[in-house]
Amino acid sequence: MEVLSVFGLDIVLADECLASRQSWTTLVQPGVWSGLQMRGTMVCGVEGLGETTTGPDSLATFQTVRPLEFFHHSCQPGPLSAVFVRVTEGGLADLLGEDGAAALCPARLLPDALQRTTRPAVSALAWQMLGLSGQGAGQRLYLAAKALEFLAAVIEGRAGEEPSTSAVRSASCLTPRDHARVMQARDLILSNLKETPSVPDLARAVGLNATKLTRGFDRVFGMPVYAFIKNARLTYARELIESGTMTVSEAAYAAGYHPATLSTAFHRHFGIKPSQARRSR
Predict the structure, then answer these.
(1) Rounded CA separation 241/248 (Å)
(2) What is the DSSP letter of 104?
(3) Which among 177, 178, 119 is positioned nearest to 149, based on CA atoms?
(4) pLDDT of 43-88, one tens digit each?
(5) CA–CA dist 228, 236 (Å, integer)
(6) N or C: which end of the chain has fewer CB within 10 A?
């Protein structure tokens, strides 16, 4: 799980593979929270506020004025993908106006916070945010912008309005079957970043043609396949370098790069050299 704090927002990106009945807790800070679970099924709850079961397309919006400890357990093995955005108490008026939290209609009790959504705008923005993680300047600005779009889409959805951006509306062009195949392609890429397949091979593996796969990545993740692979490789290399478990050269090869090529791409992407990332850990 990755947490990014920027411009009065906390952005939580979760993309895990869980065992059946796996249990864990999270400490939720005060503020207004809105998030979408895209994959997986789990039970979550808070003592005194009830519990609920969440699954794919579960949208939750709630507000708390005190820290809360959430307990969770998975209902079945497999991937869990979710994105949550927190607006801090200090950022409510600046971001949402004088009405503040009321615009998002947050719930006070956990079961009341949950709704099922089939709105393509909300789902597309969540996948785009999850598709580009990392702490570089470009990633931080991108995620902050997408988080604001996500909140706007939630507010528009509650008001019965249509999404205001054509880029978000384009995500609705994917059928559920094609969307599932795009997600399958994403998982294949992330399963072996050292040797990623070509776009035609990837398309054949998931049962799409190359054009539809490329368009699908652009609509779901906001970037073409090659850009997704590049970002995933560089983010993985940085994680390995900062963890201290590998040398820069070892991390380069593990992420599918030659060390010299990694140095150039890393600097362009993150604004620092790989050796600087290692020293900053």
Answers:
(1) 6
(2) G
(3) 119
(4) 888 887 778 888 888 888 888 888 889 899 898 888 888 999 998 8
(5) 12
(6) C
79 in Cβ contact with 137 (< 8 Å): no
Token digits of residue 234: 């560089």
Supply angle C-alpha 236, 244, 274, rounded to 5: 60
Max CA separation in the chain (angstroms): 56
**Helical (H) or strand (E) element with 170:** none
Helix, strand, coil proportions of the chain in percent (round to 5)?
50, 25, 25
- Tens of pLDDT, residue by residue over 79-124, are 888 999 998 877 777 777 766 556 666 666 666 677 766 567 788 8
| Strands, E assignment, 29-144 | 31-39, 42-46, 50-54, 58-64, 68-74, 78-87, 114-116
* Dihedral sign (CA 157, 184, 39, 28): negative
Q: How far is CA 52 from the centre of its chain?
A: 22
What residues have CB less than 8 Å from 99, skipping those under 6 apart?
Answer: none
Spatial distance between the Cα atoms of 52 and 259, rounded to a whole number of angstroms: 48
**Fold adopted by 2-119:** Jelly Rolls (2.60.120)
Domain chopping of the chain, boundaries: 2-119
